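hi! just following up on the protien thing from before. the input was this:
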Amino acid sequence: MSNHATNNSIEKSLDLTNPVNFVHQGTGQPVVLIHGLAASLLDWNDLIPCLVGSGFSTYALDLLGHGESIKPEHLRDFNINNVFEHFSDWLESLQIKEPLTLVGHSLGAYLAIQYAFRYPDRVRALVLVDPFISLNQLPFLLRINYRSPIISSTMIEHTPEWLFRKLIDLTSLSIRNGFVLSEEVRVQTAADYKRAHPGIFNIIHTIQDPSPQLSAISQPTLVIWGSRDQTLAPTSFTNLIKKVPHARGIPIVGAGHVPHQSHPAQFNQLVIEFLSSLSLNSLP
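and the predicted 3d structure came back as:
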């Protein structure tokens, strides 16, 4: 079932006529799925039916500038504050009364952490998948690029379609570790890059490392990552786990940056087991 919600709190320079695109399926404890950069809610195609079948009310959205959600006109509007407000206002519009479990991948994990910081009483637990929290996690060349972003609407407008598609395919293989993904997921990955506004790549350099505040996260936290992640340094995930009081981590051997897509059966099992343990621990 597809739904839409309108955001009224983003900076007034944004065109608010476009809604937040999201899906909601199932009943039970609420679980919210947050995709990463240049992706969409379709990233969770394997996890959603698994969660619904296990008795969870499941929500997934397209973030600001992604998929079928609002795409601001001005590059200055593509910053982490606007992305977070777009996300948090959408959650508020759902009027969910129970605490949420947030499942975030990469940039989505950053948003989940920030939401837990700001609204701790609204968060039941966190599942952080290859979490991106700092430019220092990136390879050197990507780090330099994101610190001095050069993407602009004018440049994209004058880029030939064939070249843009080639860049999408190359980025898919490099950043999303597409060589371990199915053909269906590769096609989806390329389509998500094409649908996303190019300004989304400017979001990265506006992120502020939350490491000094990680000790304040009180919720049970599961960190899952691919042992062959070539986008973010796997050692950064173990460092994050040490800083979060109630966190534990599980690497998926052989997976890259998107273990939820490359190894869905193993990933889904880990998530369901974690959520089931939360239910057992809440019993009297």
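The beta strands are 2-5, 20-25, 29-34, 56-61, 100-105, 123-129, 221-226, 247-252.
The longest strand covers residues 123-129.
cheers
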